């Protein structure tokens, strides 16, 4: 890459005056920037707006650096640019009006410096006191004079994954980076923070409830827990009157305007009346005082305020007992520093965690009243001996530091009961703890203890609870026979234990030993109540004596072939989980247990269940993934309390009756029967379960469902009958008044069921059926928000039907198959895809899918899955932008690890403020040719972060391609996160937020959670059948092998993806689930090359065919085959009554003729042409999805009456629905002659890629048009602005009322964020440019052009001329022909007018 290209982000600043000296490392460029273009201070009202607008807050001015500055930067990669922000940003909402956003000004200066430039040098040059650092829009920290800002930026970028020094220099200058790391020359003032910290003012004050005292002007403060009134007007000197407010009252005085009465608690309560000047002051004081008086303890919470010291007036609150200073930057010195904290005479609890202290503040040891002290995550190496002064201390938290030993004085804290030493560097349990006779809880997770001596625990006479998770424990030794009598709870999760004998701990009640390597486990059963031993290698568990107190036991994911006898002898077992073992039978005594309420025995080898001899209290029974051929006959009338039964993925041919008589007492509510051999005769046996709410009978052998039986299930809420052979859904389904979900895809249903008038219906999925028409009632219920009708090739919808569907949030319909000339022989013969997204029992869909069958040069593809877990914003942004980022990165590098890593890192940066607190797992798959071997087969490059996975089916076997970045599944990631001193909670989540160690977004968790992806490239071969992409929820329930077998049995990728999601839900998944299935047809038998055109007198070694100046029609990339699983989705924001054809030819899907404009010699993807030039340069085209075209967004300016109805387009009003390439579509408008071979050679000489992989880059200008990108040659931009067909594209109003100004660059994230949201993961895209708008002739030049054309190429009516080979086509004739066609069409339109 040329060095100059690295400076592109630097070209967006306003430079007033600048001079650079090569000997000087500091240069300042100052510019005044509108406050609306700057990121607000955290906590301000601007945060919400900025979060929606993504990276809009970044500066986008277009003044360039001078040549001297650029030369200075290019001289050394250790030189760069630091943005310094300053000024005061008021977080209060600005006044209304068009000029409100420009009233506040923020000072922005660009400082050219090197990595050796210190803060002291910058401050001296700028004449400021100090610099402040803000990470991820969070806290502000004052930098030390010796710190180096540019080096800090470089270190930050290197930590998240950047490696190339030149790329680091480029990214450091990118304005988007300010959302992650930002420098201030002054500490920004946050009025909201000041309000919660200190309120002050001069108001009229009166003391007491009687009229004896007069009103007087006094200085009044509200700080901490007290109201402070000065005795002298306008002064805080002299006597101060203190009024404690905790437990008191604050009331409105109705006799006076804006007046409050403050009263303290107790029998000698005092009262002050304060009369405020304005309503705003009154409300502010009332709000803050109300919080104080409502407290039950004297607590002041000043956490997350970026404080260096507490307010000096806080020391007047002498009743303060609890002080929270977590997440600040407290210093020792200063009036409110840590040295003055002993002034609080009654302080009992002090929290100083996450303050970057570095050393233990010895002044804290002088607060003798302390009972609780938290100094976690401060980087401390030692604990001073003065800790022994805190004789009242009961709880001490020192987690997340660098401690390796404790002082002997700590042993003198007789009242210490809880000690936190987790995530330090202790190699063993400190011996000083033996002297702590009162300690009953010890937390030492995440240390380096490899050996546990049980004798040490025996000497701690009061110790009951020990946490030794994540220590790398290998041995637990017991040298003597001495019993450990006091320990009741022991946590040994996530270690390396192979055997564990704890029989000497005779009082053990709870044991956690999950995720070890245990082959043998021996325990004492005297007091054992809870045992968690999943994910080990246990073949048996020895407990003696019989644990009669045991209530819960988890032995799942082990190697058990049978259950020990003591399990049946235990009298109080209520919950037993033995799933994912090798059990072939369950003891009869177990099912007859009078205590067992929940039994999970799925994924075993059970062939039958013993009969129930008596009534049992069983409530939950999970037997999925076994080999059961039948269930006990007495199951339902012996287990009358059974509410949940899952027997999916077995071999059941029938189910037992609900009762022995006609009257049933069944309480069953959820029944899952998916993946068996059940037929329609089983429906009669369901009638007795009249409390049934959820019924899944997918993928059985049902030919019908008896109407009379379905009417009995009146309480049914969710019904899944997918994958059967049903031809109809009984009309009696209308009797199920509570039904909200009906899923019946992949059947033979031809008649739409009578469900649209159900009062609570929300989701209907009838895809992949044989529907021909829909008979609708006069009105539909407003609750229906998702309707999937894809895969019904014969379905025709009338305009009335569309009108009734106008309120549906997500409507999925098929686009009629239509394919451009030659397209059917392109990439669609090599691969096609289908996808499915299901929200499950969640209210929103947080999974999004990217699928592009024709990516880049049409012989590549890109697929992705993005899972936001609990947020839907980040997955949508990634879905809309990641393909574009990949397309751009491919222009800069051909190394898979480089362009994939940069794609993820750039996408992470482009998330802007949305990515500060929110994140998502991401998986991206790219199918391509190896650039070094153009005649080779394809390769598949996979990159991922988080828990989304990709599996390739090769020779019928699954081949995992991705890596799961979960703390539980990756030892390397666990060690890395531990080394960076992150706090990992008991559920294995980083800071209690996420169990993934790598995500896109969640930048506030850096450096623990990183965006750097795992990258792998796998050459594809003819044995590769298909590719499966899925999120965490899919592969948690469906194994790799089952997923492969499932897809093999279903040839249609869309139906296969739906089946995968349906199976996951039937197996117990309640979260969002998403799947993409890509069918691969890569082999020599797929060759579609055409023989070369014979031409007389033409050298076969002549120049390659030149690119034609023809833009593919907008409809071209949006017409996949019907089996591709793509559907148009109608957004609820567009009523169906507005669906029309006013877009005219904008949405035309007519195919180009095969005349003179025909495509050149076609080469298949397996054998691409030896040249590097394709038919024409093609910008990135996105996944077909929904689009709403409106007449006011149309680019051609034609009325609907000018065009005949378009095939495959539904129109009946003012808007039109048609399938287009997804969301942020990019396309080109070009004019002029075709590029000559000489131009190609020129471009090739300028290429920076020695390996020969080159993608032609055109000089374009990009303009935003409400979610669409219009790429136009620079010389045509002025004419396009004048054209009536395109003038509306420049300065287009967006959905929120703002106006997009024409710019030379535009961030894709803005377009994605401005588009209307959809719960399906897609949003409405705007119209595409009409092909007729390729050529624009200004009106003033039309006459001249007409005269020139008459003399050069007269238009002769008649049949099209014979085909001319592209290699000998005259580019001048091309231009003349195109301009003539343009002018002729323009004249015709004028005549109509």
From TrEMBL:
It comes from the Eukaryota. Residues 1-22 form the signal peptide. Residues 1091-1161, 1233-1253, 1348-1370 are annotated as: Disordered. SMART domains: LRR_BAC, LRR_TYP, PP2Cc. Its cofactor is Mn(2+). Pfam families: LRR_1, LRR_8, PP2C, RA_3. It is an enzyme of class 3 (hydrolase). Residues 1119-1147 have a biased composition (Polar residues). GO terms for molecular function: metal ion binding; protein serine/threonine phosphatase activity. GO terms for cellular component: cytoplasm; membrane; nucleus. Transmembrane segments: none annotated. Residues 1237-1247 have a biased composition (Basic and acidic residues). It catalyses: O-phospho-L-threonyl-[protein] + H2O = L-threonyl-[protein] + phosphate. Keywords: Cytoplasm, Hydrolase, Leucine-rich repeat, Manganese, Membrane, Metal-binding, Nucleus, Phosphoprotein, Protein phosphatase, Repeat, Signal. Residues 1101-1117, 1356-1365 have a biased composition (Pro residues). InterPro entries: Leu-rich_rpt, Leu-rich_rpt_typical-subtyp, LRR_dom_sf, LRR_domain-containing, PPM-type-like_dom_sf, PPM-type_phosphatase-like_dom, RA_PHLPP-like. It is a peripheral membrane protein. PANTHER family: PH DOMAIN AND LEUCINE RICH REPEAT PROTEIN PHOSPHATASE 1 (PTHR48051:SF43), PTHR48051. Protein phosphatase involved in regulation of Akt and PKC signaling. Mediates dephosphorylation in the C-terminal domain hydrophobic motif of members of the AGC Ser/Thr protein kinase family; specifically acts on 'Ser-473' of AKT1, 'Ser-660' of PRKCB isoform beta-II and 'Ser-657' of PRKCA. Akt regulates the balance between cell survival and apoptosis through a cascade that primarily alters the function of transcription factors that regulate pro- and antiapoptotic genes. Dephosphorylation of 'Ser-473' of Akt triggers apoptosis and decreases cell proliferation. This is PH domain leucine-rich repeat-containing protein phosphatase 2. It comes from Oncorhynchus mykiss (Rainbow trout). The lineage of its organism: Eukaryota, Metazoa, Chordata, Craniata, Vertebrata.
């Amino acid at each position: 890459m040329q060095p100059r290209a690295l400076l592109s982000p630097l070209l967006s600043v306003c430079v007033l005056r600048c001079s650079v000296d090569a000997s000087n490392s500091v240069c300042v460029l100052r510019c005044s920037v509108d406050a609306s273009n700057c990121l607000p201070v955290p906590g301000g009202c601007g945060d919400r707006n900025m979060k929606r607008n993504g990276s809009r807050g970044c500066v986008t001015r277009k003044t360039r650096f001078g040549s001297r500055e650029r030369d200075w930067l290019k001289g050394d990669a250790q030189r760069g640019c630091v943005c310094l922000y300053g000024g005061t940003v008021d977080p209060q909402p600005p006044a209304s009006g068009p000029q409100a956003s420009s009233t506040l000004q923020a000072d922005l200066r660009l400082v050219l410096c090197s990595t050796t430039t210190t803060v002291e040098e910058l401050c001296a040059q700028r004449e400021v006191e100090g610099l402040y650092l803000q990470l991820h829009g969070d806290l502000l920290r004052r930098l030390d004079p010796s710190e180096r800002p540019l080096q800090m930026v470089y270190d930050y970028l290197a930590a998240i994954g950047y490696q190339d020094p030149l790329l680091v220099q480029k990214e450091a200058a990118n304005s988007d980076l300010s959302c992650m790391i930002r420098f201030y020359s002054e500490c920004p003032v946050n009025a909201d923070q000041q309000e919660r910290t200190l309120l002050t003012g001069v108001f009229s004050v009166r003391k007491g409830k009687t009229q004896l005292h007069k009103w007087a002007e006094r200085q009044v403060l509200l700080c901490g827990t007290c109201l402070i009134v000065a005795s002298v007007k306008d002064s805080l000197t002299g006597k101060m009157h203190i009024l404690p407010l905790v437990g008191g009252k604050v009331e409105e005085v109705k006799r006076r305007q804006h007046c409050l009465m403050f009263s303290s608690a107790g029998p000698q309560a005092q009262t002050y009346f304060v009369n405020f000047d304005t309503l705003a002051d009154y409300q502010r004081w009332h709000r803050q005082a109300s919080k104080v008086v409502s407290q039950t303890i004297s607590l002041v919470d000043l956490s997350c305020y970026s404080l260096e010291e507490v307010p000096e007036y806080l020391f007047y609150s002498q009743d303060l007992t609890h002080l929270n200073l977590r997440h600040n930057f407290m210093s020792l010195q200063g009036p409110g520093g840590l040295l003055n904290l002993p002034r609080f005479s009654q302080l009992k609890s002090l929290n100083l965690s996450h303050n970057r202290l570095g050393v233990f503040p010895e002044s804290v040891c002088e607060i003798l009243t302390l009972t609780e002290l938290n100094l976690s995550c401060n980087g401390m190496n030692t604990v001073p001996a003065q800790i022994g002064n805190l004789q009242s201390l009961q709880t001490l938290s020192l987690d997340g530091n660098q401690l390796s030993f404790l002082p002997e004085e700590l042993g003198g804290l007789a009242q210490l009961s809880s000690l936190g030493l987790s995530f330090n560097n202790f190699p063993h349990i400190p011996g000083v703890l033996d002297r702590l006779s009162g300690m009953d809880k010890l937390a030492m997770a995440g240390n380096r203890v490899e050996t546990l001596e049980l004798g040490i625990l025996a000497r701690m006479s009061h110790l009951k609870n020990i946490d030794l998770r994540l220590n790398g424990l290998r041995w637990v030794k017991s040298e003597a026979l001495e019993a450990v009598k006091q320990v009741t709870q022991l946590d040994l999760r996530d270690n390396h234990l192979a055997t564990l004998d704890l029989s000497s701990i005779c009082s053990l009640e709870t044991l956690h030993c999950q995720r070890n390597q245990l082959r043998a486990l021996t325990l004492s059963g005297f007091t054992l109540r809870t045992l968690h031993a999943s994910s080990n290698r246990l073949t048996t568990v020895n407990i003696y004596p019989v644990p009669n107190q045991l209530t819960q036991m988890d032995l799942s994911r082990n190697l058990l072939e049978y259950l020990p006898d003591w399990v049946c002898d235990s009298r109080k077992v209520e919950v037993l989980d033995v799933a994912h073992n090798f059990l072939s039978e369950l003891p009869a005594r177990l099912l007859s247990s009078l205590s067992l309420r929940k039994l999970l025995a799925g994924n075993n080898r059970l062939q039958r269940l013993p009969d129930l001899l008596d009534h049992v209290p069983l409530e939950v029974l999970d037997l999925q993934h076994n080999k059961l051929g039948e269930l006990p006959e007495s199951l339902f009338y012996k287990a009358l309390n059974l509410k949940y039964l899952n027997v999916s993925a077995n071999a059941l041919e029938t189910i037992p009756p609900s009762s022995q008589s006609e009257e049933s007492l069944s309480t069953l509510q959820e029944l899952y029967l998916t993946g068996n051999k059940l037929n329609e005769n089983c429906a009669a046996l369901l009638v007795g379960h009249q409390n049934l709410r959820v019924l899944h009978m997918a993928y059985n052998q049902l030919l019908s469902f008896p109407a009379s039986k379905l009417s009995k299930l009146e309480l049914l809420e969710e019904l899944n009958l997918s994958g059967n052979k049903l031809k109809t859904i009984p009309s009696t389904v209308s009797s199920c008044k509570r039904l909200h979900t009906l899923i019946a895809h992949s059947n033979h249903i031809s008649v739409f069921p009578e469900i649209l008038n159900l009062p609570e219906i929300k989701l209907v999925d009838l895809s992949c059926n044989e529907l021909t028409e829909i008979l609708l009632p006069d009105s539909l219920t407003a609750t229906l928000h998702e309707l999937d009708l894809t895969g019904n090739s014969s379905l025709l919808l009338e305009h009335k039907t569309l009108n009734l569907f106008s309120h549906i949030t997500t409507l999925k319909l098929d686009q009629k198959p239509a394919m451009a000339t030659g397209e059917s022989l392109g990439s669609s013969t090599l691969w096609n895809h289908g996808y499915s997204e299901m929200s499950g029992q969640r209210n929103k869909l947080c999974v999004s899918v990217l699928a592009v069958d024709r990516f880049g040069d049409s012989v590549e593809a890109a697929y992705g899955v993005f899972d936001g877990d609990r947020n839907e914003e980040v997955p949508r942004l990634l879905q809309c932008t990641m393909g574009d980022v990949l397309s751009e990165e491919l222009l800069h590098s051909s190394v898979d690890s480089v362009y994939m890593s940069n794609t993820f890192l750039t996408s992470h940066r482009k998330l802007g403020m949305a990515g500060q607190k929110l994140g998502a797992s991401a998986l991206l798959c790219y199918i391509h040719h190896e650039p070094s071997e153009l005649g080779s087969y394809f390769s598949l490059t996979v990159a991922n972060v988080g828990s989304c996975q990709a599996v390739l089916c090769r020779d019928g076997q699954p081949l995992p391609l991705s890596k799961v970045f979960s703390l539980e599944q990756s030892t390397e990631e666990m060690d890395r996160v531990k080394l960076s001193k992150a706090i990992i909670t008991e559920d294995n989540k980083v800071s209690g937020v996420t169990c993934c160690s790598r995500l896109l977004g969640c930048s506030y968790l850096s450096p623990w959670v990183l965006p750097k992806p795992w990258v792998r490239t796998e050459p594809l071969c003819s044995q590769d059948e298909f590719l499966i992409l899925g999120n965490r929820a899919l592969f948690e329930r469906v194994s790799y092998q089952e997923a492969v077998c499932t897809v093999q049995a279903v040839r249609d990728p869309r139906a296969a993806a739906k089946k995968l999601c349906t199976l996951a839900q039937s197996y117990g998944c309640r979260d969002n689930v998403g799947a993409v299935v890509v069918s691969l047809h890569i082999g020599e038998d797929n060759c579609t090359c055409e023989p070369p055109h014979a031409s007389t007198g033409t050298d076969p070694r002549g120049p390659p065919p030149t690119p034609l100046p023809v833009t593919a029609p907008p409809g071209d990339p949006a017409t996949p085959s019907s089996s591709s699983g793509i559907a148009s989705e109608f957004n609820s924001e567009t009523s169906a009554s507005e669906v029309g054809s006013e877009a005219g030819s904008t949405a035309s899907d007519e195919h180009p003729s095969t005349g003179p404009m025909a495509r050149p010699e076609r080469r298949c993807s397996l054998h691409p042409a030896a040249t590097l030039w394709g038919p024409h340069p093609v910008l990135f085209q996105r996944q077909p999805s929904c689009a709403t075209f409106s007449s006011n967004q149309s680019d051609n300016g034609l009325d609907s009456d000018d065009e005949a109805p378009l095939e495959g387009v539904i129109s009946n009003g003012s808007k039109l629905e048609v399938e287009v390439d997804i969301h942020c579509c990019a396309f080109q408008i070009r004019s002029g002659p075709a590029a000559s071979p000489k131009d190609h050679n020129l471009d090739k000489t300028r290429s920076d890629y020695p390996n020969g992989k080159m993608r032609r880059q055109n000089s374009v200008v990009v303009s935003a048009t409400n979610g669409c990108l219009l790429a136009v040659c620079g010389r045509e931009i002025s004419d396009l602005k004048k054209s009536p067909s395109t003038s509306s594209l420049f300065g287009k109003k967006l959905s929120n009322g703002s106006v997009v100004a024409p710019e030379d660059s535009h961030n894709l994230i803005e377009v994605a964020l401005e588009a209307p949201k959809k719960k399906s993961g897609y949003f409405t895209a705007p119209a595409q440019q009409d092909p007729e708008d390729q050529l624009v002739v200004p009106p003033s030049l039309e006459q001249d052009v007409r005269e020139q054309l008459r003399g050069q190429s007269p238009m002769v009516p008649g049949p099209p001329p014979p085909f001319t080979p592209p290699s000998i086509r005259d580019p001048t004739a091309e231009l003349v022909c195109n301009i003539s066609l343009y002018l002729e069409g323009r004249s015709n339109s004028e005549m109509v007018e």
